[in-house]
Amino acid sequence: xxxxxxxxxxxxxxxxxxxxxxxxxxxxxxxxxxxxxxxxxxxxxxxxxxxxxxxxxxxxxxxxxxxxxxxxxxxxxxxxxxxxxxxxxxxxxxxxxxxxxxxxxxxxxxxxxxxxxxxxxxxxxxxxxxxxxxxxxxxxxxxxxxxxxxxxxxxxxxxxxxxxxxxxxxxxxx
Length: 174
Hints:
Elements: E1 9-13, H1 19-26, H2 32-35, H3 43-52, H4 57-60, E2 63-69, E3 74-84, E4 89-96, H5 106-120, E5 126-132, H6 136-143, E6 148-158, E7 163-172
Parallel strand pairs: 4-5
Antiparallel strand pairs: 1-2, 2-3, 3-4, 5-7, 6-7
Helix pairs in contact: 1-3
Pfam families: Acetyltransf_3
InterPro entries: Acyl_CoA_acyltransferase, GNAT_dom
Organism: Winogradskyella marincola
């Protein structure tokens, strides 16, 4: 099994104690464009989600991990979604909650750990990401981790005022 521990961060499963952290992320309207969320989540719903988060990836078809600093503080979330064992592929999404923790290499390290886990432990052939054309930081993060732009989805997302394009990026395990 591949270690989910890096030099500065580690990835761990969601715990009931993550309720407030996940609640803040899911209800931060400035982050909703990243996840296509349009409504707030109650503590009750997030508590139920955390209680069911222990499902196996083969059953749930997704996996959400908490990104923690070496000191143990939760700083973000990283997801495997649309897990497709037949075609050996899955999507990946990442979020570092606070601006103060961005641009420090934590996202790069977390993405690298998760991609290695997907390829070496889950034996996936490919992983992909969907990223807004205007999200330069995320595009750079994924491209610097070996992902290639494979398509542009025109007018893909609507923010209530205008449509924006979204890139699909892919990394194939060779």
